[in-house]
Amino acid sequence: RFLDAIPKNNNVWALITGHAADPRDQFVRYSADMSSWSSPANNLPPGKLNAPSAGDGDDTDFGRLVELNATIFAFLLDDRSTVNEIEVHNTADEGATAWTSVTQVQSAGGPTGWAVWFDLNGDPAPVIGTQEGVYALDVSASVMQLLLQVPTDANNCRGMFVANGKLYVPTGKGGMYELTLVEAGVISARIMDFPGPDGLISARQGY
């Protein structure tokens, strides 16, 4: 089951499930030719998903990869415990040494959107969208910062993107937020108006 992929040092790094040891685990593979695939010396820690085996349908909310300043960040759904969490792990050496467990944030599901934008300090940061809102990873402090809270919806943040320095966040109801970093600690959120009573048409909602 394919979840995500990013380019890194002339390789494609893919996040997938279906590991032989446990089909529920998320893990990474890399390839230079998209034909032969290799595993890094150290892979992601096992035991994150309570999901069906890899033979079932895709669920792209199980995990995401984001690269920032040569570091790969993995945002992984952990739904094996009582409370669902999105766990954050990173590697600065492409898995030559063990991945670092950074932090986690509670969510009803996995990451629905992702981007590189800013944290509340004004520093570049990996940003993820969830069913509940938008979070930035403060890399220096290893904490998740809530940038935007919205009414819970399984389709919030799908198609989230950055343009002209602003972060655009679709909602599951068909609307859109425009986030602007005004200064350190201050983010403005503007609700964008669209024609029609339901906001964006379904084909433009990002899912």
Annotate the secondary structure layout.
Elements lengths: L1 E7 L2 E7 L8 E6 L31 E6 L2 E8 L6 E7 L8 E7 L6 E6 L5 E6 L3 E6 L4 E7 L11 E3 L2 E5 L5 E8 L2 E7 L15
Antiparallel strand pairs: 1-2, 2-3, 4-5, 5-6, 6-7, 8-9, 9-10, 10-11, 12-13, 13-14, 14-15
Task: Give a verbal description of the structure.
- The protein is an all-beta fold and 207 residues long.
- The chain has no helices and 15 strands.
- The strands form four sheets. Strands 4-5-6-7 form a four-stranded antiparallel beta sheet, with no helix packed on it. A four-stranded antiparallel beta sheet has the order 8-9-10-11, with no helix packed on it. A four-stranded antiparallel beta sheet has the order 12-13-14-15, with no helix packed on it.
- A hairpin with a 6-residue loop joins strand 5 and strand 6.
- About 3% of the residues have low confidence.
Helix content: under 10%
Number of strands: 15
Shape: globular
Strand content: over 45%
Q: Low-confidence runs (pLDDT<50, min 5 residues)?
A: 52-57
Main β-sheet: number of strands, strand sense, barrel status?
Answer: 4 strands, antiparallel
Termini separation comes to 18 Å
On the 0-100 scale, what is the average pLDDT? 87
What is the chain-wise order of helices and strands?
A: EEEEEEEEEEEEEEE
Radius of gyration: 17 Å
Strand order of the largest sheet: 4-5-6-7
Estimated structural class: mainly beta
Counting H and I runs of at least 4 residues, what is the number of helices?
0
